[in-house]
Amino acid sequence: QVQLVETGGGLVQTGGSLKLSCAASGVFTGINDMGWHRQAPGKRRELVAHVPNHGITEYGDSLKGRFSISRDIANNAVYLQMNNLKPEDTGVYFCHAYALSTTGWDNYWGQGTQVTVSS
């Protein structure tokens, strides 16, 4: 199985920056994609950004330009640099990985890290 641990959330003022980190551990053969989703109070979980091993990095609507995602494939990690944060960016940010474990390919999620942007 795959465990994902996120760090880096917290409270920041409007216009501030945060960097989230996520590291994968456990028993797996490979990871084909890693990324971030977020869920605001009362809203659906939505894509923030993801980076496939082969393909194009994808961002959620209106986030590219303020958010930047990167991966360290060798160390099974993904990062999210968030700049010029706005109150509407508040929510729980979840790390995601599509990985090959002993049970086959599957989607895995971290526990989430809270990001709060004050106005």
Tell me briefly what this model is.
The protein is elongated, with a radius of gyration of 14 Å. With 119 residues, it is an all-beta fold. It has no helices and 11 strands.
Describe the structure.
- This protein is mainly beta and 119 residues long.
- 0% of the residues lie in helices and 62% in strands.
- The chain has strands at residues 2-7, 10-13, 18-26, 30-39, 45-52, 58-59, 67-72, 77-82, 91-101, 104-109, 113-118.
- Strands 2, 4, 5, 6, 9, 10 and 11 form a 7-stranded mixed β-sheet that branches. The protein has a 4-stranded antiparallel β-sheet with strand order 1-3-8-7, with no helix packed on it.
- It is elongated and about 45 Å long.
- The chain starts with a strand and ends with a strand.
Number of strands: 11
Mean pLDDT reading = 96
Poorly predicted residue ranges: none
Helix coverage percent:
under 10%
Broad structural category: mainly beta
- Gyration radius, in Å: 14 Å
Number of distinct helices: 0
What general outline do the C-alpha atoms trace? elongated
Q: What series of H and E elements makes up the topology?
A: EEEEEEEEEEE
Our estimate of the beta-strand percent is over 45%
